[in-house]
Amino acid sequence: MFIRRGKSLYAEGVAVSTLAENLGTPLYVYSESQLLKNYRAYETGFARLPHLVCFALKANSNLAVARTFAREGAGADIVSGGELYRALLAGFSPAKIVFSGVGKTREEMKFALNKGIYCFNVESVEELQALNQTAGNLKKKAPVALRVNPDVQADTHHHITTGTKENKFGIPKSQILDAYETARKLKNINLIGIQAHIGSQITSVAPFERFLNVMLDLVDQLSARGIYLDHLDMGGGLGITYHKETPPTPADLARAFEPRLKGRALKLLFEPGRFLVGNAGILVTQVLYRKRTGHKTFVVVDAGMNDLARPALYDAYHEIVPVSKNGSVRETVDVVGPVCESGDYFAKARHMPYPEQGDYLAIQSAGAYGFAMSSQYNSRPRAAEVMVSGKAWRVVRKRESLEDLIRGEK
């Protein structure tokens, strides 16, 4: 966790300034205790219901982060062969891995079948047929949950909704019963569940309640047709606090779900990403220059949109705080990076402590979709990552070098 002691920001028992001075910036810093706290909130919240929490590697695929959850007994939600490779290296049991995504290749299917994963979340009838054929060639049966697009509004940013009829994900609700009828006729498919995911950064219980009602109605319709399922996969989507949001906890969701699930022999699956890692990471950056134009005041930092793309992609808000408080003067500024794009910013018209040249700033709640979405745009080496545990810290990804930028090129 990240706390302020006096004027200094700490990651658990380590001063963030110490990490920046030793490792340079930009720098991702993760708190192991916060990762564990977030995961255990799901485990305790849903303790009275049969469940499996599968960490969505897309949010943060660093091996050290993934291993933290694997050691706790978590499952993994993957969306590519590369994420399956990472999940296995991190120590996740194949029997707790679910494979999501609209575009699985036959090679990825083969890889996952040979490893014996728990379930494929299948998103179209054509994918279902390809999986059936691939499994048959291997003389295996593929465990399957069909992903339904429930057309439920998630009350979140339109770029991160995934469960409305405008989105590419899943099989439309109007077609899902026929898809299950098709699936049960395929000899290499073993139907074990139903899955959906309505979006990300959801900050109230109501969308989840609407979602659960739709899903349970479908489960009942399938049961009436003689199609009995072992699990209901509710995806992820539980939000965190970036600004002034007050999102529900897993325990809040469990209290809403329990009455609706009473008497049902259904295992619940969850695929949280942001909730598990978002507030467990910060991006530390150093102020390069300040610039007053007469119209605006810019604070130029050494991190860019290639390091953290969320503000540029979604106009996402991240709190920005000084690593060491040196004064009380506040100004309205734009915090921008060095990338040659007007969209390269972390804050616009933000009233905040005015930093000095050379000061370190911490961009908060950057543990999800931070490094995982980073790039080498403008030929900028990607940042280092460090894990803090109590008073100890270790580099879990070294900073890229100039040689790394051209690796594999001729």
List the keywords.
410 residues, alpha/beta, Lyase, Ornithine Decarboxylase, Chain A, domain 1, TIM Barrel, eight-stranded parallel beta barrel, 21 strands, 26% strand
Low-confidence stretches: none
Shape: elongated
Structural class, by secondary structure, is alpha/beta
How many helices?
A: 12
Kindly report the CATH topology of the largest domain.
TIM Barrel
CATH architecture of the largest domain: Alpha-Beta Barrel
Count of domains = 2
**Count of beta strands:** 21
Bin the helical content. Answer: 25-40%
Compute the gyration radius: what is it?
23 Å
State the CATH class of the largest domain.
Answer: Alpha Beta
Distance between the termini: 44 Å
Q: Characterize the main sheet.
A: 9 strands, mixed
Task: Give the oligomer, counting copies of the same chain as homo and different chains as hetero.
Answer: single chain
Q: For the record, what is the CATH homologous superfamily label of the largest domain? A: Alanine racemase
Mean pLDDT: 95
Instruction: Estimate the strand proportion.
Output: 25-35%
